[in-house]
From TrEMBL, chain A:
GO terms for biological process: transmembrane transport. Belongs to the binding-protein-dependent transport system permease family. It is found in: Cell membrane. It comes from Lentzea atacamensis. Keywords: Cell membrane, Membrane, Transmembrane, Transmembrane helix, Transport. The chain crosses the membrane at residues 28-50, 82-106, 118-142, 154-177, 198-223, 253-277. CDD domains: TM_PBP2. It is a multi-pass membrane protein. Residues 83-277 form the ABC transmembrane type-1 domain. It holds the Pfam family BPD_transp_1. The lineage of its organism: Bacteria, Bacillati, Actinomycetota, Actinomycetes, Pseudonocardiales. GO terms for cellular component: plasma membrane. This is Carbohydrate ABC transporter membrane protein 2 (CUT1 family).
Automatic annotation (TrEMBL), chain B:
The chain crosses the membrane at residues 43-64, 105-129, 141-161, 192-216, 237-258, 298-320. One of its GO terms (biological process) is transmembrane transport. This is Carbohydrate ABC transporter membrane protein 1 (CUT1 family). It holds the Pfam family BPD_transp_1. Keywords: Cell membrane, Membrane, Transmembrane, Transmembrane helix, Transport. Residues 1-14 have a biased composition (Basic and acidic residues). Belongs to the binding-protein-dependent transport system permease family.
């Protein structure tokens, strides 16, 4: 009996032979169904955003009457300001998060010091305290920072700073940095490299793949934030784009098309980041996400 | 340095004086002390310097709020009038509150249903799309898109699909197979299931990726052996694939379910907890209590309770996992 190895490329044993057209047909059909089911709704956002006056009862995958009017009206409803808020928060928080994670991981992975186990435990503990659980006191703390007594309410910094450190990123980075052979470091030390040069010129350049992973996860986590920008906002002009969608929809003067134009603008950045860093994203899920 | 100096001098003194009795001990303490000093100046200080930004942010935006939340939960919070200490009264109020009890039931149903549903669909997707072909890679990438789209965006589009009139998008679609029209999130009977459905739709592709990773780790020879033994496809899946995936699936199910207890955004954007509280979950309840009824003390007690439940569950899952791994 000859069981060729290609038959068990998959658990189901999907046939790859050209003559097995029934099996292949079923697979193609089901795959098409899956794509329609999972991508179709997002395509409808595209078509609705460009459709002149889309009726919620007449959504379609292709716009009937293409126009940019929705974006124009959405602009009058300050959609570009919301988008700017979102982009500034995403950029600022992501840069901060990357820097903070890399620094912390360097200490945790490349050094041995007293209190290391406690530091790890504390970071693990932060992952048990997502924004949802501490939302109410967090809004008070943001309104009156301890010691300095500055209010971040209604500022973009009020959203950026709490997102500046993320346990998940620190852990992923730490795991990766542990893999870098110690010989490299020792050789640099022999050459007289100081602590900062060691970090910036030896360790950091080797971490590029992991930086991709934590960047794409970090962006996703920041873009997904909803409760935090909601509680930090002092009035609707502070909203991020995602939070503003609900306010737009609740406004009777604003039609479906305008909301969809906003939804599209909120969707596109995540699509761009995902499609350009897809490999990092999938690697991150399979290696690190199980820890979360 | 000045603080160290006298002690150092003292040390040498004792060595000089106590050379008869504790001479050996002094020789032993000497290297220990030097090591400690070096640690304080370099080896300990520099790592903490690198950890400082993370520590500061966590302290200010995680631990202080947590402590503040626990404190608030013991008070009746009255802005401008001064808070009154009430002990565990807030906890008692919440645990007897009809709305919070209903919300906790909804939360459990939603977290459980969403987790199981996403895993099941994710499993089927993984079986369907496993393989090395370029076209499969393309399909997988496309199917994954709901995971990266923000929940608020997904909420808006599904709200439109759930348009309750017979001409609504989803009602049109299901009418092709003779179903509907339904009212989805606008009817107290179907609202929770509708929210669950959206959650499954968003999370299933994520589970798919993890299951695909699990599938890739299965030894192909086991499949061949099963085929030679004459096992059908279904038997092969049941007897070879599923047992191999079980550790991954169990852990993911529990962690996703725990995370599901904190569900907020999906419900908030889809229904806001309505209609008539039929989709109210723990976090939307807490949010309403805090920001619409301005009962910060009560809401804090609700948050602390949620934290305790997730803490206990997470620690026991980790403990269980450790124990299994140790075996």
């Amino acid at each position: 009996m000859s069981v060729n190895s290609s038959r068990f490329d998959s658990a189901i044993g999907w046939s790859t032979r050209p003559d097995a057209w029934v099996g292949r047909g079923i697979r193609v059909l089901l795959s098409a169904l899956a794509v329609i089911l999972f991508c179709g709704p997002l395509l409808v956002i595209f078509s609705g955003a460009f459709d002149h006056n889309p009726d919620p009862t007449q959504l379609s995958v292709f716009p009937d009457n293409p126009s940019l009017i929705n974006f124009k009206v959405a602009g009058e409803n300050k959609i570009w300001d919301y988008l700017a808020n979102s982009l500034i928060i995403a950029g600022g928080a992501l840069l901060l998060q990357l820097a903070v994670s890399v620094f912390a991981a360097y200490a945790l992975a490349r050094k041995k010091f007293r209190g290391q186990a406690i530091a790890l435990l504390v970071i693990l503990a932060t992952m048990m305290l997502p924004e949802e659980v501490i939302a109410i006191p967090l809004s008070l703390v943001i309104g009156d920072l301890p010691l300095v007594h500055v209010s971040l309410k209604g500022t973009l910094l009020g959203v950026i700073l709490p997102l500046g450190a993320w346990g998940f990123s620190i852990f992923v980075m730490t795991e990766f940095m542990k893999e870098i052979p110690a010989e490299l470091e020792e050789a640099a030390k022999v050459d007289g490299a100081g602590e900062l040069r060691l970090f910036a010129q030896i360790i950091l350049p080797l971490c590029k793949p992991a930086l991709g992973v934590i960047a794409v996860f970090g962006f996703n986590m920041i873009w997904e934030q909803y409760l935090l920008p909601l509680i930090v906002a002092a009035d609707p002009s502070d909203y991020t784009l995602t939070v503003a969608l609900l306010a737009l929809r609740s406004d009777d003067m604003v039609g479906t098309g305008i909301v969809l134009a906003g939804a599209l603008l909120a969707l596109v950045p995540s699509l761009i980041v995902y499609l350009s860093l897809q490999k990092s994203f999938l690697r991150g899920i399979t290696t690190g996400a199980i820890k979360g | 340095m000045t603080a160290v100096h006298p002690a150092e001098k003292n040390h040498w003194d004792t060595q000089d004086v106590g050379s008869t009795a504790s001479g050996g001990g002094a020789v032993e303490t000497h290297p220990v002390r030097r090591r400690r000093r070096r640690r304080l100046t370099g080896a300990t200080f520099i790592p903490w310097l690198f950890l400082f930004p993370a520590a500061l942010i966590f302290l200010v935006f995680k631990f202080i709020p947590m402590a503040e939340g626990i404190r608030l939960s013991l008070f009746e919070v009255r802005p401008f009038l001064g808070d009154i200490f009430v002990g565990f009264k807030n906890y008692a109020t919440i645990l007897q509150d009809e709305k919070f009890l209903t919300a906790s039931w909804h939360t459990l149903v939603l977290a459980g249903g969403q987790t199981l549903g996403a895993m099941l669909i994710g499993f089927f997707l993984a079986l369907l799309l496993e393989g090395h072909a370029k076209s499969l890679w393309f399909v997988r990438s496309a199917v994954f898109l709901p995971v990266v789209a923000a929940t608020a965006v997904i909420g808006e589009i599904w709200r439109l699909f759930f348009y309750p009139a017979p001409e609504g998008f989803l009602n049109e679609v299901i009418s092709w197979v003779g179903l509907g029209p339904w009212e989805y999130i606008h009817n107290t009977d179907t609202s929770l299931v509708s929210v669950m459905f959206v959650g499954i739709w968003k999370h299933a592709p994520y589970d798919m990726v993890l299951i695909l990773a699990g599938l890739a780790g299965i030894d192909r020879q086991q499949y061949e052996a099963a085929a030679i033994d004459g096992a059908s496809t279904l038997q092969r899946i049941w007897n070879v694939t599923l047992p191999a995936l079980r550790p991954v699936i169990t852990i993911l199910l529990t962690l996703a379910a725990i995370r599901g207890l904190r569900v907020f955004t999906e419900v908030y954007v889809l229904t806001g907890g309505g209609p008539a509280g039929s989709t109210d979950v723990w976090m939307t309840r807490v949010y309403t209590t805090a920001f619409e009824q301005s009962e910060a003390g009560l809401a804090s007690a609700g948050s602390v309770l949620l934290f305790l439940v997730t803490l206990v569950l997470t620690v026991s899952v980790q403990w269980y996992r450790r124990r299994k791994e140790a075996r």
